[in-house]
Design goal:
Elements: E1 9-13, H1 15-19, H2 27-31, H3 40-71, E2 76-82, H4 93-99, H5 104-111, E3 114-120, H6 125-134, H7 138-141, H8 162-168, E4 172-178, E5 196-200, H9 211-215, E6 246-250, E7 256-258, H10 264-268, H11 270-287, E8 292-297, H12 319-340, E9 347-353, H13 380-383, E10 384-390, E11 399-401, E12 405-406, E13 421-424
Parallel strand pairs: 2-8, 2-9, 3-11, 3-12, 4-5, 4-8
Antiparallel strand pairs: 1-13, 3-10, 5-6, 6-7, 9-10
Length: about 425
């Protein structure tokens, strides 16, 4: 595994490194570690920076030990990921002045931590989410195309997920928000290692499966009762009579529908409910003296207006800008909630988009911003996304870095890879 060349001091550790301490690996396995053969550049970099890396590791280990002594558990992890956002759309106030909208809370989050300028993902929703949750390129899990409702398929049951690995390391795990990794039971989050989940099996397309859209011919055939009797129709059994937006379950428990359609107001309540459950799960886990991992992946928007919103929140006025300003308020509630619970110092929070903007046939307002290309492209604009991390006392604030990282770096298993750092320009605060 290649170490980053522009290394000074660590700013953020990959998620699995944080979670998978040596206690996860049996003693005999620690004594007989398999030899890993790296590429030539690794050995060159190791010769150049090995001593500095060892010193950084020692400082970081000391900081982690200090936090564990103070809080009684390893650090918590919250991973927030949303859709279709170009680099520069959030975290950089100057660009937002040009774009005509503001996300002050996300911008503050970036200023209080580290703002990554070169985070790479897969070029679309399903592949990106599969890559994050498995730590593998999406083509390896067979989830390399955008899953579209209705699917009758999903991620395989035997995939090893982030939740399964962290669960074995003693973490409580939860998923809330947009799953988009299948609509079959084996693919559900609670079948993939999560202890608790509220999720949408599909993308945001079902937000248009409502009576208003049928009356406007945006969709056709979802509500057969809207149409007069057709004397030439021989079979009505193919026509749908219902569908699901959101499911909820606990591991091993029954699966229930939540916020049933076709009320569009229920769709817009998904993110608020997901945030509420994120904070409740954090409190529950902390009370039980367990570290927690929450993947909170907001649906962020719908393709039909929210009846509760009577005016636009930005001068940009387009759907992407409106969804980001809506998300910005939720991020403030998340961070305020962690502070109120007294656990923000022991919680690594990562914010990022899943891929670039939906510039091809997407809603108005999806633009490239800085780089050529968009969703579905392998140009920079399609796979280079905004990403930032905050961890008070560990990640020194005010960092903007250009190190190349991938979303799969969030899943580096201790038993397969050596310690891997996503490095910035300054250091472990106080370390």
């Amino acid at each position: 595994m290649r170490r980053l060349k522009t290394v000074k001091q660590p700013a953020i550790i990959t998620l699995a490194v944080i979670a998978l301490s040596s206690t996860l690996v049996p003693a005999h396995a620690q004594e007989q570690k398999p030899k890993i053969v790296h590429d030539a550049e690794y050995y060159i970099l190791d010769t150049q920076h090995g001593e500095a890396w060892a010193a950084e590791d020692k400082a970081l280990d000391a900081k982690l030990a200090e936090l564990k002594k103070k809080f009684g558990t390893p650090p918590n992890i919250i991973h927030v990921m949303w859709d279709d956002t170009a680099v520069g759309e959030v975290g950089i106030p100057a660009i937002q002045k040009v774009r005509g909208f503001e996300t002050p809370n996300i911008n503050q989050f970036a200023a209080e931590g580290i703002n990554f300028m070169r985070m790479y993902t897969e070029p679309a929703c399903t592949p990106s989410r599969a890559a994050v949750i498995t730590g593998r390129l999406a083509v390896r899990s067979g989830m390399h195309t955008v899953s579209f409702p209705v699917e009758h398929s999903g991620i395989d049951k035997d995939e090893v997920t982030m939740a399964e690995v962290l669960g074995k390391a003693g973490y409580a795990t939860a998923f809330y928000g947009k799953w988009h990794l299948g609509d079959t039971k084996p693919s559900y989050p609670t079948e993939q290692g999560f202890d608790d989940a509220l999720w949408t099996p599909y993308n945001q397309v079902p937000s248009m499966w409502i009576p208003q859209a049928e009356l406007m011919n945006i969709i056709v055939g979802m509500y057969p009762d809207f149409y007069p009797k057709d004397p030439y129709e021989l079979d009505k059994t193919w026509q749908p009579r219902g569908f699901v937006w959101t499911l909820e379950a606990t591991k091993g428990g029954p699966i229930r529908e939540w916020g049933p359609p076709p009320d569009i107001a229920n769709y817009y309540k998904i993110d608020a409910e997901s945030l509420k459950r994120t904070l409740a799960f954090a409190h529950q886990s902390t009370t039980a003296k367990k570290p927690f991992y929450v993947a909170w992946w907001p649906v962020a928007t719908a393709f039909f207006p929210n009846p509760a919103e009577r005016q636009k929140s930005s001068v940009n006025k387009a759907l992407p800008a409106e969804s980001l300003t809506r998300l910005d308020k939720l991020i403030k509630q998340l961070m305020d909630g962690l502070k109120e619970q007294g656990i923000d110092e022991n919680t690594l929070v990562v914010l990022m988009a899943d891929n670039g903007p939906f510039t091809h046939h997407g809603p108005d307002g999806m633009i490239e911003t800085l780089y050529r290309g968009g969703k579905g492209d392998y140009w920079e604009g399609g796979v280079r996304v905004p990403a930032m991390a905050r961890w008070p006392g560990v990640i020194k604030p005010g960092q903007t870095v250009g190190d190349i990282i991938s979303q799969t770096d969030l899943f580096m298993k201790w038993t397969r890879f050596p310690w891997t750092r996503i490095c910035g320009e300054s250091g472990v605060q106080g370390g």
